[in-house]
Structures are given as structure tokens and as C-alpha cells.
């Protein structure tokens, strides 16, 4: 479980430098989590994800083309079409989503090239490379299903659905119903 590790890590060096997951990676994970939360209703349209998550439709189209090439989602054409997960959410790891959109969490200033100090490796290069590897391993240990079952994720998704006036049951409604039964 990952409760002890913060989602956003920041480190300061002599030049102000913050290490963080790029917008592309964060949006891809957010969109995939939205898809997982609403998957039981059939294919999910990118327009619905865009509206719920505040991500532009054109940007989602670019991300989902990469996610489809990464075999994480498949598309369904026609009326009622959209996207669905290609595999069970229990086996889709957050790191796979980030990797599929060609992103990495990199704590180095040199993008891992080792030319961070006037064309040479800086003193802390290997430390930051090790941190990047630890973050990737951390994200590899978290599945979409792990996130879907988190109470705080379910609460946010419920608020988003209520704002949109959805009358259909989302994944979290299904989880709550099965917990009561």
C-alpha cells in the first residue's frame, strides 16, 4: 500500500528545481481512473471524461491514441461507443499508464543523460536516478483497482457525477451496493 508516500515530491538544489510528474502523465492516469470508475456502464466517451475531469477533448484524443497503442484501452465505434479498458483494472498498474504515454518521472535535471554539470555527471546524479527508479517501482505497485477502491477517490467521483446530473450508477455505486449486500 502507498499511504505513507506523498503523491507530489519536491526537491531543491542550488537552482530551484521541482521534480514532478508531467501534466501528460497526470492526465493519463486521471483519465484511466475515470474510465475504470465508469467502465461497468459500457464504453465511456472521451467527451464525458473531458467534462468530468476538465481535460480538453483534443488532448484526451492524443492520450487515448497512445493508451490504445499501449494495449491499455480499446475503442468501440458507433452509437454508444467510446473507450473501455483492455484488461481487468486489477492488472493495469499506474506505471504502465505513465509509460504508455511516453512519460517518466525523472528526478534528474539532465533527464538521466549524466550531463547535468557542465557536460559531466553531477555529484548527486546517481541519487536522483535511484529516486526516479524508486518512484517507478512505487507506481508499479498501484493498480487502477487499488485506486478505484479508495474511499476518497469514490467520494470525489460521486461529487463529479452529481455535478453532471448523472442518473447512471458509476463503479463506486456498484462497489457500495456490493458492500451492503
UniProtKB/TrEMBL annotation:
Gene3D superfamilies according to UniProt: Winged helix-like DNA-binding domain superfamily/Winged helix DNA-binding domain (1.10.10.10)
InterPro entries: TF_HTH_IscR, Tscrpt_reg_Rrf2, WH-like_DNA-bd_sf, WH_DNA-bd_sf
Assigned keywords, A-Z: DNA-binding
Residue stretches in coiled coil: none
GO CC, any one term: cytosol
Superkingdom as given in the UniProt entry: Bacteria
SUPFAM superfamilies: Winged helix' DNA-binding domain (SSF46785)
GO molecular function: DNA-binding transcription factor activity; double-stranded DNA binding
Pfam families: Rrf2
Residue ranges of the region described as Disordered: 160-181
Protein name per UniProt: Iron-sulfur cluster assembly transcription factor IscR
Amino acid at each position: 500500500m502507498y499511504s505513507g508516500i506523498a503523491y507530489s515530491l519536491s526537491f531543491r538544489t542550488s537552482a530551484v528545481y521541482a521534480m514532478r510528474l508531467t501534466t501528460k502523465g497526470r492526465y493519463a492516469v486521471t483519465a484511466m481512473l475515470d474510465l475504470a470508475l465508469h467502465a461497468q456502464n459500457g464504453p465511456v466517451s472521451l467527451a464525458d471524461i473531458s467534462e468530468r475531469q476538465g481535460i480538453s477533448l483534443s488532448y484526451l484524443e492524443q492520450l487515448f491514441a497512445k493508451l490504445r497503442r499501449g494495449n491499455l484501452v480499446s475503442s468501440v465505434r458507433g452509437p454508444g461507443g467510446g473507450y473501455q479498458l483492455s484488461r481487468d483494472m486489477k492488472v493495469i498498474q499506474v506505471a504502465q499508464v505513465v509509460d504508455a504515454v511516453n512519460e517518466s518521472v525523472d528526478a534528474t535535471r539532465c533527464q538521466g543523460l549524466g550531463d547535468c554539470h557542465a557536460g559531466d555527471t553531477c555529484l548527486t546524479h546517481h541519487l536522483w536516478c535511484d529516486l526516479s527508479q524508486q518512484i517507478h517501482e512505487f507506481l508499479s505497485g498501484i493498480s487502477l483497482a487499488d485506486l478505484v477502491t479508495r474511499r476518497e477517490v469514490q467520494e470525489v467521483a460521486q461529487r463529479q457525477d452529481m455535478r453532471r446530473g448523472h442518473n447512471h450508477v458509476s463503479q463506486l455505486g456498484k462497489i457500495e451496493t456490493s458492500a451492503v449486500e
